[in-house]
Amino acid sequence: MLDATTRSGGTATAPPPAAATELALAAPVTVGLAARCSRVLLSPWSRLSLLVALLVAAGSTVLLLEPQRLLADGWPPELGGAAAALVYAVAYGLCAVAFVPRPLLNLAAGALFGSQLGLGAALAGTVLGAGIAFTLGRVLGQSALRPLLRGRLLQGADGQLSRHGFRSMLAIRLFPGVPFAAANYCAAVSRMGYLPFLLATALGSIPNTAAYVVAGARASTPTSPAFLIAMAAIAVPALVGAAVAWRKRHHLRGR
Fold first, then answer.
1. Number of neighbouring beta carbons within 10 Å of residue 218
2. Among 23, 26, 183, 188, who pairs with 138 as Cys (CB 3.0-4.6 Å)?
3. How many Cβ atoms are within 10 Å of 11's Cβ, its own excluded?
4. How many CB atoms lie within 10 A of CB 235?
5. For residue 20, what pLDDT band results from cuts at 50, 70 and 90?
């Protein structure tokens, strides 16, 4: 018996049953492979690996570019005033994410822009760098690292940051001792909120940042009262922070 296409004079023929079966079986296999690849790429450990790769690349870039040369060579002459401070704040934030020490960046801000403009640029860069690091840690690292928070010390620190985020981060920023990058990523792994983290960073970073900026601005006159006061403002909080951390370690272990 002729099929409908043959009877109407057409030339098309129906696909063989075997080919149709192969197409029907290939579609689920392709979809399943795509789903598995997607799960692997979006898994917590894949995202953590991406975070590590980004940080290694950022650190390597900083080593190659040597931003500390700004202290010796100065700021490009075509940039000046508020525009230069804004550019420096963005560069500061990116360098802070790449593990460039903040004291060096703060000293450079004071040496390049003076006390007032340098302080504004340094604080803006601090908040920007902290926000970028917190976002990267929260999106790429939290889901993989939270199951590893075992032991009394780690669980105590995580509980303190999660339940008392603002005041804990404020204390960390006010009393230096915890490295800037480490504090950012530890806060990201905890359940601390984004807004309390940024507010505590902005407020808590003012005294220490101001001391370094003033020291950088008055570095040419190391015997001036402003420089000596700035150095004292750097040393005293560091000693107080070390003493507080020494006492708090028993509290964290007990929890």
1. 22
2. 188
3. 6
4. 11
5. low
Show the 3-state SS of 49-97.
HHHHHHHHHHHHHHHHHCCCHHHHHCCCCCCCHHHHHHHHHHHHHHHHH
Closest to 108 (Cα-Cα) out of 239, 249, 215, 250? 215
CB contact at 8 A, 47 and 140 = yes
Tell me the C-alpha distance between 116 and 215, whole Å.
Answer: 12
Confidence of residue 62 (pLDDT cuts 50, 70, 90): confident
- Taking CB atoms within 8 Å and a gap of at least 24, the contacts of 69-76 are 70/108, 70/112, 71/104, 71/107, 71/108, 71/111, 74/112, 75/112
172 class by beta-carbon count within 10 Å (0-12 exposed, 13-18 middle, 19+ buried): buried
Backbone angles phi, psi at 176, to 5 degrees: -60, 150
Closest among 241, 206, 213 to 227, alpha carbons compared: 213
Q: Hey, what are 106's tokens?
A: 């703060």
Residues 200-223 have pLDDT tens digits of 999 999 999 999 999 999 988 888
How many CA atoms lie within 13 Å of 19's alpha carbon, on the beta-carbon side?
4
Residue 196: pLDDT band with limits 50, 70, 90: very high
Specify whether the CB–CB gap between 11 and 110 falls below 8 A. no
Cα–Cα distances in angstroms (integers) from residue 38 to residues 29, 42, 47, 118, 132, in the given order: 14, 6, 12, 46, 25
Q: What is the pLDDT of residue 148?
A: 60
Residue 75 burial by CB count (10 A; 0-12/13-18/19+): exposed, middle or buried?
Answer: middle
